[in-house]
Amino acid sequence: MSMTLYHGEPNGPSFTVLAALFEKGLDASLVHIDLAQGRRHALPCSLQPEVAMSVEGEGPVLLVDGEGMTDSVFIACYLDDVGPGSALRPSDAYARWETMTWCRQLIERTAPAAAYLGCRAHAPQPDPAMLPKIGSVDLRARWDDAAVGTGADDKLADSRTKITQAVDKIEARLDGREWLMREFSIADLESYAWLAGMVHVVPSAFAGKSRTASWLKRIEARPAVRRALSLARGPAAANCWAPGPEINRWG
Amino acid sequence: MGGVTLYHWEPNANSGKPMLALMEKGVAFDSHYLDLLNFDQHKPEYLAINPQGTIPAMLHGERVLTESTAIMEYIDEAFPGPRLMPDDPRDRWRVRWWMKFMDQWLAPSFSMIGWSVFIGPAVRSKDPEELKAAIERIPLPERRIAWRKAIYGLFGEEEMKESQRRVAVGIRMLEEALGKRQWLATDRYSLADVNGFNLAFALPLSQPKLSNDEVTPNILRWLRAIYARPATKACWALGRTALAKRVAILEQPHIGKEHVA
Fold first, then answer.
1. How large is the average pLDDT for residues A91-102?
2. Which of A50, A104, A250 sits opposite B145 (nearest CB)?
3. Rounded to a whole number, what is the distance in Å from the CA of B251 to chain A's nearest CA?
4. What is the signed CA dihedral for B188, B190, B195, B200, rounded to 10 degrees?
5. From CA B117, how far away is CA B110, in angstroms rounded?
6. Do B93 and A69 touch (CB under 8 A)?
7. What residue in A sits closest to B142 (Cα-Cα)?
């Protein structure tokens, strides 16, 4: 089985997948693509429904036997299943439910807020040739929205609130434990992925959160994470954003 | 570990997912029906179990589980019985991809239409003061907005149009996927099918122009195959309203374009 990972800068979903790959000791051909230019839409697999319609928006693509796999948490679960390294999910069914629920709430509430704020603070620069190739009408609308550069006040305020709530939740969760699920897991990777870039965008959310600050450093000290972060092309990977998952339309 | 209690509404959407998964696994459970239209899910006795006031919630012994799709994965792992997740890791990825796509992209659009034509009108006749108080008791702000829109008919033309667009796109994607495989995400019945049936079981009734035996033969084949399973029959028998009874449309051997009113 040969794998090719098309990834962007090690931030957001690309971070999760790169770090999971290295944590598990797996080999893949690594191909850097500029997600912030919309380069994912030039990939041969870009029109496969699971790539074109990924809820995650502009994330990495793992190509296995011609099939493009998207959505970072689920790619990480796949890598966890096939790789020889230490498990990235607990073995107990209830703890696994906790892990998946944690990630679900993160990708539904925190990730859209982080991508929205990230794109306003560090606007992506789409290649005009890529935009017509975008298969998802609503993802295309998020690109158009990001290009304007300003955000609706209510969405900006709501997104800052969601980042603050996520950090509060992490701070509370880390009381008496090193990692979010006790053992290091995909929940740590995915939480770091969306929040590391928010430290400078929403500094108030992190103020006085000493447990969260130590946890961020603990993650960065892991060899697999250092290797993922070393793949950055630019000086500040955490400032690289592309349109992500959409903010809930309703309910 | 102790017994299983499931707090649920109709076999439909999020409530129906763990109901059907439990039935498929052959796990006995205490069924605790909450009347969504009577706001049972926001009453103190239920908020003591799930403070977010969302349905469903499952008790397994002392443990409380929420989030219907994650509950389904737990049910599959924690109990014996037929496996509802495939053995192949890439197939498992595909099951999760489709469940997320339905949960977060397609279902909210179906749901907006459903709340607009079913839920809103069903509760609108209640006492206005009682409704106001009921809305104020909802713990999650986004659910408060959703209920307010449904009750007072505040859905905008643009958002309804966008929901209808997504429903049409989603139906095309389901039809295409089911043209490639026997089941939605793999060649074996899985949680993706349990999830999808809860979303789509009444599709030929709710979207008759977009889904019938002539334009979406694969979707209809798939829905009938799931409806034929004993677990599905047992699960939908727990329904108490007209919502669940709509599943009977699948007993018709052919649902053609002439079905369109």
1. 98
2. A250
3. 31
4. 20
5. 11
6. yes
7. A251
Q: Which of A49, A70, A100 sits opposite B173 (nearest CB)?
A: A49
pLDDT, tens only, A131-172: 999 999 999 999 998 887 766 788 999 999 999 999 999 999
Contacts of B169 in chain A (CB under 8 A): 137
**Residues in A touching B177 (Cβ below 8 Å):** 49
Closest Cα of chain A to B99: distance in Å? 11
Contacts 24+ apart (CB under 8 A), B195-198: B195/B17, B195/B69, B195/B72, B195/B98, B195/B99, B195/B102, B195/B103, B196/B98, B196/B102, B196/B222, B197/B16, B197/B20, B197/B223, B197/B226, B197/B227, B197/B232, B198/B11, B198/B12, B198/B13, B198/B14, B198/B16, B198/B17, B198/B20
Joined together, the tokens standing for residue B129 give: 């003061």
Which residue in this structure is represented by tokens 């982080």?
Answer: A114
Segment A48-77 shows an average pLDDT of 98
Instruction: Please state, as a whole number, how many other Cβ atoms lie within 10 Å of the Cβ of residue A27.
Output: 9
Q: What is the pTM of this model?
A: 0.97
Q: Are B247 and B20 in contact (CB under 8 A)?
A: no
